[in-house]
Design a protein that fits this description.
The complex is a heterotrimer of chains A (about 170), B (about 350) and C (about 375).
Chain A: H1 3-13, E1 20-22, E2 29-32, H2 37-46, E3 54-62, E4 67-70, E5 76-79, E6 82-91, E7 96-105, E8 110-112, H3 121-132, E9 135-137, E10 165-166, E11 169-170
Parallel strand pairs in A: 2-7, 8-9
Antiparallel strand pairs in A: 1-2, 3-6, 4-5, 6-7, 10-11
Chain B: H1 2-10, H2 13-47, H3 63-73, H4 84-102, E1 106-108, E2 111-112, H5 119-127, H6 130-140, H7 144-175, H8 180-186, H9 204-227, H10 239-242, H11 252-277, H12 288-292, H13 297-321, H14 329-356
Antiparallel strand pairs in B: 1-2
Helix pairs in contact in B: 1-2, 2-11, 2-13, 3-11, 4-5, 4-6, 4-11, 6-7, 7-9, 7-14, 9-11, 9-14, 11-13
Chain C: E1 9-13, E2 25-31, E3 34-41, H1 49-55, H2 58-66, H3 73-88, H4 94-123, H5 127-147, E4 156-157, E5 160-161, H6 169-192, H7 195-201, H8 209-214, H9 220-224, H10 231-234, H11 260-284, E6 303-311, E7 314-322, E8 330-334, H12 336-341, H13 344-348, H14 353-363, H15 367-371
Antiparallel strand pairs in C: 1-2, 2-3, 4-5, 6-7, 7-8
Helix pairs in contact in C: 2-3, 3-4, 4-5, 4-11, 4-14, 5-6, 6-11, 11-14
The chains are: A alpha+beta (about 170), B mainly alpha (about 350), C alpha+beta (about 375).
Chain lengths: ~170, ~350, ~375
């Protein structure tokens, strides 16, 4: 089933929401508004025609499409713009794939958690929170996973600056 | 007997007996433990397609000596939160238990540390003394792994005492003596007089005894593996779960004491099996000294046969260790209480009936 | 009698522990010997792979992929280069495809040998570990012959390979495959059908198929639960559809479907299937130039791709976003061990401490991949 066909089915269920399809080399991407995401995912998983029973991957992305502002020390800061979460779904039953992208404003990156839909999302969401600071609403244990709990900043953001000291140890070696 | 001879030589019974009792420590336990460790490493290497230690001395023969030297030089760390008196005492308690057992082992017809009539009983009692040491070590280290190891160890050793003793009792019922020297003396001449082959009994009874005696030996051997914490019953020090079990926190010479005690214990249980089932210090086929007419050669041969047979059983223990995986703690108890103990009881009754004939 | 008050013990397993397979810390809540909960803490080996990748050009990322799952480096290379090739729409020569499959399957055997060996150690059997390493050594010799490295190969390049096969590779590989069948039998006699080993692993850590799918498990962990699922068959990539082989699933021969023994046995049988694939590939391999398709400049067009391969540990996915520059904009790795480890608390609760170790061993994790 192509992304276009899947979108037709979704539109019957969510008539008022704005979905969009972006063509892409590695398969088309469905862009979804953040607030319906959890309902959408439950629908995708449970609907007989779609039955996306597995979440292959969940990535956080910093799109870095905001305004780039040079700072005095040569580094830069990005104001505004978007972060994104990308969901790669797969149906083992029907053997079709779907990529969903959710754009989030960088100032307030909040997205509903899909952990209840696919438990596989648990650690992936924690990792995205750890690296990008994306808040997954409704996640049962949203803590840093790879970095220490008291680390500053979100390393995979494009304008990340390493903290100078961590517990008295110099960080950039 | 050597103890009496030494007593006469020094003119004092106490000093003579003391020296006699210390003989196995220096003449046997220390060199044996050194080379048992070496042998274990070589055996494991052989079984695993490796070479094993080969750097210190010819064929790595001095490897353990080098290890001991290293251990002696190591800092003796006592953890800050440990219970210090218990922590320091534990390795010596364990080693003392092992060493005390050697006192009643008959090495030859002329040498036994203490020729007491309750030899078997004494050894079984004294070797369970190490339980106290293990519990002390596990508790004093103030480490959760140590505590788990100690608790498992105590549960295991106490449980396996039951089938081990039942197996020995069934053998002793036929033998009619608890004195290890006497037991060894009975099984004289040729190997078919060993108790595992029915002993020096004549007639049909001998053939009836072979199977129950073999079963008694196997039960005792399995139970003794558990008592000395060897694979497949090494859960008290199960490396993959409890790091090192009750001796996790020990370093240097104290750690070496545990090692020494473990290898000592392996020999003690083998020596009991040898004395009761495999003819003790008796040669399987007559003495060279007899045929040559050199009477002083006989005791030497006896020592050789005793140590040889004991070491052979130690080798079997090593062989098992490098072949088998480890049981889980509940399975270990199942083996003990649901299989070994009932079988030992049935065997006891069986042997009892046979002895009635 | 007044009710006795009891409390749970919290036992810290790791980060330095003989059987956590690296620097994993498990916070184990125990009620006596019974496991109440297991909380894995990861990140001790975090080396910022994804951040590094953003500062490198595409070919420079390949050595970094080696270091993720250091026990199956070839397959990490495989997944990454195939992903970039798809992004750039490069068609590689036939010979390259065959060599990649041969190397990938050899790597699978090598990885499974380590997994099986260390699982044996976790159960307390030390000897099979060295038997496995003896055979793995010969595979590493084959790799060394080809690309000079024994652990981190950097062998597969975008559009080709760093070296062609040396002339005596094929006879040596065939000789290995012949001897390896005997080794598998030896392993089965020594470990797989050992009564104690079966007692320790059968009916332990049962993972139900639905749970496994929902938790995103993949590879031998998923197949051990009886789900016939292998990306090489179900979502074929490269040239896997040209060979005749079977997907191995757990059947619950010794206990329940999805227990530790099943996961273990799937690995043993998969090695046999890998041998089958390699044998066919060695017979069919065509001649050709392995470097002809390597692009001068690797500069994929704007776009993104999620590409997954069946690595020895499970589904290894690369999510690569390109902004048209020579450096990747974002590389996210979906590491199989990372997802598989999540299942550990579920399959360990209610069992004994010793079973945590068995469960962890049967999941076959590598911390380099989990923490990246």
């Amino acid at each position: 089933m192509t992304t276009q066909e899947i979108l037709e089915i979704i539109k019957q269920k969510f008539p008022e929401e704005q979905f969009e399809i972006k063509t892409n080399i590695g398969g088309d991407i469905l862009i979804s508004p953040p607030k319906v995401l959890r309902d959408l995912c439950f629908f995708l998983r449970d609907d007989e025609r779609l039955s996306f029973d597995s979440l292959m991957n969940l990535s956080g992305v910093d799109l870095a499409d905001g305004e780039k502002k040079k700072l005095e020390d040569g580094t830069f800061e990005i104001l505004g713009g978007h972060l994104a979460t990308v969901y790669h779904l797969y149906s083992m039953k029907h053997n079709h794939k779907l990529t969903i992208k959710v754009l989030l404003p960088k100032e307030n990156p909040v997205v509903p958690s899909v952990e209840r839909v696919w438990r596989a999302a648990d650690w992936h969401e924690r990792e995205a929170y750890d690296m990008f600071g994306i808040i997954f609403e409704g996640h049962h244990n949203l803590k840093r996973i790879l970095l220490p709990d008291d680390w500053d900043g979100y390393p995979l953001r494009k304008d990340y600056k390493v903290q100078e000291f961590y517990h008295g140890m110099k960080v950039p070696y | 007997m050597i103890p009496d001879y030494l007593a006469e030589f020094f003119g004092n019974k106490f000093i003579g007996y003391l020296i006699a009792a210390a003989l196995p420590l220096f003449l046997w336990i220390l060199p044996y433990a050194l080379y048992a460790v070496y042998a274990e490493r070589k055996v494991s290497a052989f079984m695993q397609d490796r070479i094993g230690p080969n750097r210190v001395g010819p064929k790595g023969l001095f490897q353990t000596i080098a290890d001991i030297l290293k251990l002696i030089q190591k800092e003796d760390i006592v953890p800050a939160s440990a219970d210090k008196p218990l922590f320091v005492m534990a390795p010596y308690v364990i080693f003392a238990g092992t060493f005390a057992a050697f006192a009643a082992l008959p090495f030859s017809s002329i040498y036994i540390g203490s020729n007491i009539n309750l030899g078997v009983f004494y050894i079984m009692a004294v070797s369970s003394f190490s339980v106290v040491g293990i519990l002390m070590a596990g508790w004093a280290g103030n480490n959760k792994y140590s505590l788990y190891g100690a608790m498992r160890s105590v549960a295991q050793i106490v449980s396996y005492e039951v089938p081990a003793l039942l197996a020995i009792v069934s053998a002793v019922m036929v033998i009619g003596s608890l004195n290890l020297n006497e037991i060894s003396e009975m099984q004289t001449a040729y190997f078919w007089n060993w108790w595992i082959f029915g002993g020096p009994v004549v007639g049909i009874k001998k053939f009836l005894l072979i199977i129950p005696m073999t079963i008694a030996f196997i039960i005792f051997f399995i139970a003794s593996l558990a008592e000395v914490n060897r694979t497949p019953f090494d859960i008290p020090e199960a490396e993959s779960e409890l790091v090192a079990g009750f001796h996790t926190e020990y370093t240097g010479m104290k750690f070496a004491m545990f090692f020494l005690a473990e290898y000592g214990n392996m020999f003690v249980v083998s020596a009991i099996s040898v004395s009761i089932f495999f003819g003790g210090w008796q040669s399987p086929f007559g003495y060279l000294g007899n045929s040559l007419g050199i009477s002083w050669l006989i005791p030497v041969e006896q020592v050789f046969w005793f140590l040889f047979k004991g070491s052979l059983l130690v080798l079997v223990q090593m062989w098992l260790r490098w072949t088998l995986p480890r049981l889980r703690v509940d399975q270990l108890m199942t083996v003990c209480w649901k299989y070994l103990t009932p079988y030992a009881f049935i065997n006891l009754v069986l042997i009892g009936i046979i002895t009635l004939f | 009698m007044a009710e006795l008050k009891t409390d749970h013990i919290v036992l810290n397993m790791g980060p330095q522990h003989p059987s956590t397979h690296g620097v994993l810390r498990l916070e184990v809540v125990l009620d006596g010997e019974v496991v109440v909960d297991v909380i894995p803490h990861i990140g001790y080996l975090h080396r910022c792979f994804e951040k590094h990748a953003e500062a490198m050009t595409y070919p420079q990322v390949i050595p970094y992929t080696d270091r993720m799952d250091y026990l199956s480096s070839m397959y990490n290379n495989f997944g990454y280069v195939e992903a970039v090739e798809r992004l750039m729409n490069i068609e590689v020569p036939e010979r390259v495809k065959y060599i990649r499959v041969i190397m990938g399957e050899f790597q699978r055997i090598a990885n499974h040998l380590v997994a099986i060996g260390t699982f044996g150690i976790d159960i307390g059997a030390f000897t099979p570990f060295l038997y496995c390493f003896r055979d793995r050594e010969r595979i590493l010799d084959l790799f060394e012959m080809t690309c000079g490295a024994r652990l981190l190969y950097n062998y597969m390049w975008i559009g080709g390979l760093s070296h062609d096969l040396p002339p005596d590779f094929i006879p040596k590989a065939k000789e290995f495959l012949k001897d390896f069948k005997k080794s598998i039998k030896e392993l089965n006699d020594l470990l797989s059908f050992n009564k104690i080993f079966i007692e320790r692993t059968a009916n332990i850590g049962i993972l139900l198929p639905d749970t496994a799918i929902n938790y995103g498990c993949s590879g031998p962990v998923l197949r051990g639960s009886g789900v016939k699922w292998d990306l090489r068959k179900n979502d074929p990539y490269s040239i896997y559809d040209r060979f005749d082989w079977e997907v191995v699933v757990g059947k619950g021969e010794m206990g329940t479907v999805g227990d530790c023994w099943d996961r273990y046995m799937v690995r043993v049988k998969e090695m046999e299937q890998s041998c089958r694939i390699i044998e066919q590939a060695l017979d069919q391999i065509p001649d050709g130039d392995v470097t002809s398709a390597i692009p001068k400049r690797v500069k994929p067009p704007v776009g993104e791709i999620y590409f997954r391969v069946e690595s020895p540990k499970g589904e290894l996915g690369y999510h690569i976003i390109s902004d048209g520059s020579p450096n990747p904009f974002r590389v996210k790795v979906r590491a199989p061990s990372f997802v598989n480890l999540q299942i550990l608390p579920i399959i360990s609760r209610g069992y004994l401490v010793a079973d945590i170790v068995a469960n962890l061993g049967s999941l076959d994790i590598v911390l380099g991949e989990i923490d990246r």
